Amino acid sequence: MLTRRIIETVVRNALDEDAPWGDLTAELAIPERARVDTRLVAREPGVFAGGRLVVEAFRQTEPSIEVTRLIADGAAFEAGDILASVSGPARGVLTAERVALNLSQRMSGVATLTARYVATVAHTRARIADTRKTTPGLRALEKHAVRVGGGSNHRFGLSDAIMVKDNHLAALGAVDDATTTAALRELRERAGHTTSIIVEIDRLDQLDSVLAAEVTGILLDNFSLEDLATGVRWIDGRAVAEASGGVTLDTVAAIAETGVDVISVGQLTHGARALDLGLDAA
Domain named Quinolinate phosphoribosyl transferase C-terminal: which ranges (predicted)? Predict the structure, then answer.
Protein backbone atom coordinates (compact mmCIF):
# COMPACT_ATOMS: atom_id res chain seq x y z
CA MET A 1 0.00 0.00 0.00
CA LEU A 2 1.32 3.42 -0.96
CA THR A 3 1.04 5.23 2.37
CA ARG A 4 1.69 8.87 3.18
CA ARG A 5 4.75 7.87 5.18
CA ILE A 6 6.26 5.94 2.25
CA ILE A 7 5.64 8.85 -0.13
CA GLU A 8 7.25 11.37 2.21
CA THR A 9 10.26 9.14 2.84
CA VAL A 10 10.92 8.28 -0.81
CA VAL A 11 10.65 11.91 -1.89
CA ARG A 12 12.83 13.15 0.98
CA ASN A 13 15.54 10.64 0.15
CA ALA A 14 15.39 11.51 -3.56
CA LEU A 15 15.66 15.25 -2.88
CA ASP A 16 18.52 14.71 -0.44
CA GLU A 17 20.32 12.65 -3.08
CA ASP A 18 19.79 15.23 -5.82
CA ALA A 19 20.49 18.41 -3.83
CA PRO A 20 22.31 17.43 -0.60
CA TRP A 21 23.68 20.96 -0.06
CA GLY A 22 21.13 22.89 -2.10
CA ASP A 23 20.67 23.62 -5.80
CA LEU A 24 23.67 25.74 -6.82
CA THR A 25 22.28 26.60 -10.24
CA ALA A 26 18.88 27.75 -9.00
CA GLU A 27 20.25 29.63 -6.01
CA LEU A 28 22.95 31.51 -7.95
CA ALA A 29 21.29 31.97 -11.36
CA ILE A 30 17.60 32.50 -10.55
CA PRO A 31 16.35 35.66 -8.77
CA GLU A 32 14.76 34.88 -5.42
CA ARG A 33 11.45 36.51 -6.37
CA ALA A 34 11.16 34.90 -9.82
CA ARG A 35 8.09 32.77 -10.50
CA VAL A 36 7.32 30.26 -13.24
CA ASP A 37 4.24 28.59 -14.68
CA THR A 38 4.95 25.14 -16.10
CA ARG A 39 3.09 22.12 -17.38
CA LEU A 40 3.79 18.42 -17.02
CA VAL A 41 3.46 17.24 -20.63
CA ALA A 42 3.38 13.74 -22.11
CA ARG A 43 5.83 13.13 -24.94
CA GLU A 44 4.26 9.74 -25.71
CA PRO A 45 0.98 7.91 -24.90
CA GLY A 46 0.63 5.88 -21.74
CA VAL A 47 -1.08 5.35 -18.39
CA PHE A 48 -0.28 7.79 -15.60
CA ALA A 49 0.97 6.90 -12.13
CA GLY A 50 2.75 8.82 -9.40
CA GLY A 51 0.63 11.93 -9.00
CA ARG A 52 1.01 12.02 -5.22
CA LEU A 53 4.79 11.77 -5.59
CA VAL A 54 4.80 14.72 -7.99
CA VAL A 55 2.84 16.85 -5.54
CA GLU A 56 5.05 15.80 -2.64
CA ALA A 57 8.30 16.59 -4.48
CA PHE A 58 7.22 20.18 -5.03
CA ARG A 59 5.64 20.50 -1.57
CA GLN A 60 8.79 19.40 0.25
CA THR A 61 10.94 21.71 -1.84
CA GLU A 62 8.71 24.80 -1.57
CA PRO A 63 5.28 24.54 0.10
CA SER A 64 3.89 27.50 -1.85
CA ILE A 65 4.23 25.70 -5.21
CA GLU A 66 0.80 24.82 -6.62
CA VAL A 67 0.15 21.62 -8.58
CA THR A 68 -3.21 21.76 -10.38
CA ARG A 69 -5.01 19.96 -13.22
CA LEU A 70 -3.29 16.77 -12.07
CA ILE A 71 -4.77 13.75 -13.87
CA ALA A 72 -5.67 10.69 -11.84
CA ASP A 73 -3.43 7.69 -11.43
CA GLY A 74 -4.63 5.04 -13.87
CA ALA A 75 -5.82 7.57 -16.46
CA ALA A 76 -4.72 7.00 -20.05
CA PHE A 77 -3.18 9.88 -22.00
CA GLU A 78 -1.87 10.70 -25.47
CA ALA A 79 1.31 12.41 -26.61
CA GLY A 80 0.99 16.14 -26.09
CA ASP A 81 -1.55 15.90 -23.25
CA ILE A 82 -1.06 18.16 -20.24
CA LEU A 83 -0.91 15.96 -17.15
CA ALA A 84 -0.54 18.72 -14.54
CA SER A 85 0.15 22.43 -14.13
CA VAL A 86 2.90 23.53 -11.73
CA SER A 87 3.26 27.16 -10.65
CA GLY A 88 5.30 28.93 -7.99
CA PRO A 89 8.73 30.22 -7.03
CA ALA A 90 11.12 29.40 -9.88
CA ARG A 91 13.91 28.17 -7.63
CA GLY A 92 11.70 25.58 -5.97
CA VAL A 93 10.07 24.39 -9.19
CA LEU A 94 13.45 23.92 -10.89
CA THR A 95 14.98 22.16 -7.88
CA ALA A 96 12.13 19.64 -7.57
CA GLU A 97 11.66 19.13 -11.31
CA ARG A 98 13.96 16.13 -11.82
CA VAL A 99 12.76 14.20 -8.76
CA ALA A 100 9.12 14.75 -9.69
CA LEU A 101 9.80 13.64 -13.27
CA ASN A 102 11.96 10.64 -12.35
CA LEU A 103 9.32 9.21 -10.03
CA SER A 104 6.33 9.83 -12.29
CA GLN A 105 8.17 8.62 -15.40
CA ARG A 106 9.20 5.39 -13.68
CA MET A 107 5.75 4.70 -12.22
CA SER A 108 3.93 5.62 -15.43
CA GLY A 109 6.21 3.24 -17.32
CA VAL A 110 5.22 0.38 -15.03
CA ALA A 111 1.52 1.28 -15.26
CA THR A 112 1.67 1.53 -19.04
CA LEU A 113 3.41 -1.82 -19.50
CA THR A 114 0.98 -3.47 -17.08
CA ALA A 115 -1.99 -2.10 -19.01
CA ARG A 116 -0.60 -3.62 -22.22
CA TYR A 117 -0.34 -7.04 -20.60
CA VAL A 118 -3.83 -6.78 -19.13
CA ALA A 119 -5.31 -5.79 -22.49
CA THR A 120 -3.55 -8.68 -24.21
CA VAL A 121 -5.24 -11.28 -21.96
CA ALA A 122 -8.60 -9.51 -21.61
CA HIS A 123 -10.36 -12.27 -23.56
CA THR A 124 -9.36 -14.86 -20.91
CA ARG A 125 -9.91 -15.42 -17.20
CA ALA A 126 -6.25 -14.85 -16.31
CA ARG A 127 -5.12 -12.05 -14.03
CA ILE A 128 -1.75 -10.38 -14.56
CA ALA A 129 0.30 -10.14 -11.35
CA ASP A 130 3.65 -8.63 -10.42
CA THR A 131 6.51 -10.26 -8.50
CA ARG A 132 9.14 -9.21 -5.96
CA LYS A 133 11.51 -8.24 -8.79
CA THR A 134 11.27 -4.57 -7.93
CA THR A 135 13.69 -1.68 -7.51
CA PRO A 136 15.03 -1.78 -3.92
CA GLY A 137 13.35 0.92 -1.87
CA LEU A 138 10.67 1.58 -4.50
CA ARG A 139 8.56 -1.56 -4.20
CA ALA A 140 5.46 0.21 -2.85
CA LEU A 141 5.60 2.72 -5.72
CA GLU A 142 6.02 0.07 -8.40
CA LYS A 143 3.34 -2.22 -7.02
CA HIS A 144 0.96 0.75 -6.82
CA ALA A 145 1.72 1.43 -10.49
CA VAL A 146 0.90 -2.19 -11.35
CA ARG A 147 -2.49 -1.84 -9.64
CA VAL A 148 -3.44 1.40 -11.40
CA GLY A 149 -2.35 -0.21 -14.66
CA GLY A 150 -5.01 -2.88 -14.10
CA GLY A 151 -2.78 -5.64 -12.73
CA SER A 152 -2.81 -7.50 -9.42
CA ASN A 153 -0.20 -7.57 -6.70
CA HIS A 154 1.49 -10.81 -5.72
CA ARG A 155 3.20 -10.92 -2.33
CA PHE A 156 4.44 -7.52 -1.21
CA GLY A 157 7.24 -9.25 0.66
CA LEU A 158 8.35 -12.42 2.36
CA SER A 159 6.12 -11.69 5.37
CA ASP A 160 2.83 -11.79 3.45
CA ALA A 161 2.39 -15.40 2.37
CA ILE A 162 4.23 -18.69 2.16
CA MET A 163 5.78 -19.62 -1.17
CA VAL A 164 7.53 -22.96 -1.16
CA LYS A 165 10.11 -23.54 -3.90
CA ASP A 166 12.36 -26.49 -4.71
CA ASN A 167 15.07 -25.47 -2.26
CA HIS A 168 12.50 -25.12 0.51
CA LEU A 169 11.19 -28.61 -0.21
CA ALA A 170 14.72 -29.98 -0.15
CA ALA A 171 15.37 -28.29 3.19
CA LEU A 172 12.14 -29.81 4.51
CA GLY A 173 13.36 -33.27 3.55
CA ALA A 174 10.72 -33.73 0.83
CA VAL A 175 12.43 -36.41 -1.25
CA ASP A 176 9.36 -38.20 -2.67
CA ASP A 177 5.58 -37.79 -2.98
CA ALA A 178 4.79 -39.01 0.53
CA THR A 179 7.33 -36.81 2.29
CA THR A 180 6.37 -33.82 0.15
CA THR A 181 2.70 -34.13 1.10
CA ALA A 182 3.54 -34.70 4.77
CA ALA A 183 5.90 -31.71 4.90
CA LEU A 184 3.36 -29.40 3.27
CA ARG A 185 0.55 -30.57 5.54
CA GLU A 186 2.70 -29.92 8.59
CA LEU A 187 3.56 -26.49 7.22
CA ARG A 188 -0.12 -25.75 6.70
CA GLU A 189 -0.88 -26.65 10.31
CA ARG A 190 1.90 -24.41 11.63
CA ALA A 191 0.87 -21.51 9.42
CA GLY A 192 -2.78 -21.48 10.41
CA HIS A 193 -5.88 -21.20 8.28
CA THR A 194 -5.49 -17.50 7.37
CA THR A 195 -2.11 -17.81 5.66
CA SER A 196 -1.87 -18.58 1.96
CA ILE A 197 0.51 -21.34 0.91
CA ILE A 198 1.73 -21.38 -2.69
CA VAL A 199 3.95 -24.17 -3.95
CA GLU A 200 6.14 -23.85 -7.02
CA ILE A 201 6.63 -26.91 -9.20
CA ASP A 202 8.46 -27.47 -12.48
CA ARG A 203 7.11 -30.93 -13.45
CA LEU A 204 3.62 -32.35 -13.85
CA ASP A 205 4.49 -35.43 -11.80
CA GLN A 206 4.77 -33.20 -8.72
CA LEU A 207 1.12 -32.19 -8.85
CA ASP A 208 -0.53 -35.05 -6.97
CA SER A 209 1.68 -34.77 -3.89
CA VAL A 210 1.12 -31.01 -3.70
CA LEU A 211 -2.62 -31.19 -4.30
CA ALA A 212 -2.92 -33.81 -1.56
CA ALA A 213 -1.64 -31.22 0.93
CA GLU A 214 -4.58 -28.89 0.08
CA VAL A 215 -2.44 -25.81 -0.52
CA THR A 216 -3.84 -22.45 -1.63
CA GLY A 217 -2.09 -22.17 -4.96
CA ILE A 218 0.27 -23.99 -7.31
CA LEU A 219 2.78 -22.09 -9.41
CA LEU A 220 3.59 -23.87 -12.66
CA ASP A 221 7.04 -22.56 -13.46
CA ASN A 222 8.46 -22.57 -17.00
CA PHE A 223 5.91 -25.10 -18.26
CA SER A 224 5.21 -25.62 -21.95
CA LEU A 225 1.78 -24.52 -23.16
CA GLU A 226 0.69 -28.15 -23.46
CA ASP A 227 1.79 -28.95 -19.92
CA LEU A 228 0.17 -25.78 -18.59
CA ALA A 229 -3.18 -26.82 -20.07
CA THR A 230 -2.73 -30.30 -18.64
CA GLY A 231 -1.84 -28.85 -15.25
CA VAL A 232 -4.93 -26.63 -15.18
CA ARG A 233 -7.17 -29.61 -15.94
CA TRP A 234 -5.37 -31.67 -13.30
CA ILE A 235 -5.72 -28.99 -10.63
CA ASP A 236 -9.41 -28.64 -11.59
CA GLY A 237 -10.13 -25.72 -9.28
CA ARG A 238 -8.68 -27.35 -6.17
CA ALA A 239 -6.04 -24.60 -5.97
CA VAL A 240 -5.24 -21.37 -7.76
CA ALA A 241 -3.30 -22.24 -10.92
CA GLU A 242 -0.52 -19.74 -11.59
CA ALA A 243 1.92 -19.61 -14.51
CA SER A 244 5.33 -17.97 -14.41
CA GLY A 245 8.67 -17.94 -16.15
CA GLY A 246 9.71 -16.26 -19.37
CA VAL A 247 6.44 -14.41 -19.86
CA THR A 248 6.49 -11.67 -22.52
CA LEU A 249 3.90 -9.66 -24.42
CA ASP A 250 4.39 -12.06 -27.32
CA THR A 251 3.69 -15.18 -25.23
CA VAL A 252 1.24 -14.03 -22.55
CA ALA A 253 -1.97 -14.50 -24.59
CA ALA A 254 -1.20 -18.15 -25.35
CA ILE A 255 -0.31 -18.74 -21.70
CA ALA A 256 -3.58 -17.17 -20.58
CA GLU A 257 -5.55 -19.31 -23.04
CA THR A 258 -4.42 -22.48 -21.23
CA GLY A 259 -6.90 -21.57 -18.49
CA VAL A 260 -4.54 -20.48 -15.69
CA ASP A 261 -5.96 -18.17 -13.05
CA VAL A 262 -2.90 -15.96 -12.61
CA ILE A 263 0.17 -15.11 -14.69
CA SER A 264 3.01 -13.57 -12.69
CA VAL A 265 5.26 -11.32 -14.76
CA GLY A 266 8.56 -10.04 -13.40
CA GLN A 267 8.96 -7.81 -16.45
CA LEU A 268 6.19 -5.51 -15.22
CA THR A 269 8.65 -3.94 -12.80
CA HIS A 270 12.17 -5.00 -13.70
CA GLY A 271 11.64 -4.58 -17.45
CA ALA A 272 9.52 -1.44 -17.69
CA ARG A 273 11.17 1.65 -19.17
CA ALA A 274 10.51 5.15 -17.89
CA LEU A 275 7.90 7.01 -19.94
CA ASP A 276 8.92 10.25 -21.62
CA LEU A 277 7.35 13.12 -19.67
CA GLY A 278 8.60 16.69 -19.50
CA LEU A 279 8.09 19.88 -17.54
CA ASP A 280 7.64 22.75 -20.01
CA ALA A 281 7.17 26.45 -19.47
CA ALA A 282 3.55 27.45 -19.95
Answer: 110-280
